[in-house]
Amino acid sequence: GAVVSQHPSRVICKSGTSVKIECRSLDFQATTMFWYRQFPKKSLMLMATSNEGSKATYEQGVEKDKFLINHASLTLSTLTVTSAHPEDSSFYICSASPRDRGLYEQYFGPGTRLTVT
Amino acid sequence: AQKVTQAQTEISVVEKEDVTLDCVYETRDTTYYLFWYKQPPSGELVFLIRRNSFDEQNEISGRYSWNFQKSTSSFNFTITASQVVDSAVYFCALPLGGYNKLIFGAGTRLAVHP
Fold this sequence. Notes:
The structure holds two protein chains of two kinds. Chain A is mostly beta strands. Helix content of chain A is 0%, strand content 54%. Chain A has strands spanning 4-7, 10-13, 19-25, 30-38, 44-51, 57-58, 67-73, 76-81, 90-98, 107-108, 112-116. In chain A, strands 2, 4, 5, 6, 9, 10 and 11 form a seven-stranded mixed β-sheet that branches. In chain A, strands 1-3-8-7 form a four-stranded antiparallel β-sheet, with no helix packed on it. Chain B is built from no helices and twelve strands. Chain B has strands spanning 3-5, 10-14, 19-21, 24-26, 33-39, 46-52, 59-61, 64-69, 74-79, 88-95, 102-104, 108-113. The interface between A and B is medium-sized, with 22 and 22 residues.
């Protein structure tokens, strides 16, 4: 099956620092990856769509300069939370769509729990 | 507008009870997919089913079954003879238009007690 990994699984950082989260498709190439955010006991909220080789498309209300997304290859997308603050603490989940499959196939990573102190 | 409503915030049952999780959706699309995902305490989303709007047949997979009713825009999920391992948050989801990005419902937290 299609496997998506995220690294790190948990990270604690100090306010004002930047944190990078990696999302990798391990056994398939993904032209499109998605980044979601989930607050405790809440639903997943789509943050942005990451397309290989082009700029990410952000959802309304998501700060582009705050959440930098880079999709440098067909197997890797990164989300960098810049100048993190406690309100950025959340569970971040990525997903990836295989380039050679039909529409709507999407595989989720295990998530990264970010805590900003 | 695309919207997914899961009105049941939390459900608590005793093991071996049957339980149905409701999902009501709104979409402008004439053809679409619907999804159910399970999120156990570990946090990882587990894919359960993808359903095409063309196919209104009910689907059964072991103890899981899904009832898709286009007339009422519902895609309900039933767990038969629930087990403690079924305890999780369950999300219903709908793709946004012709894109892959998913709109999730608020989720239903299911607690199955021994």
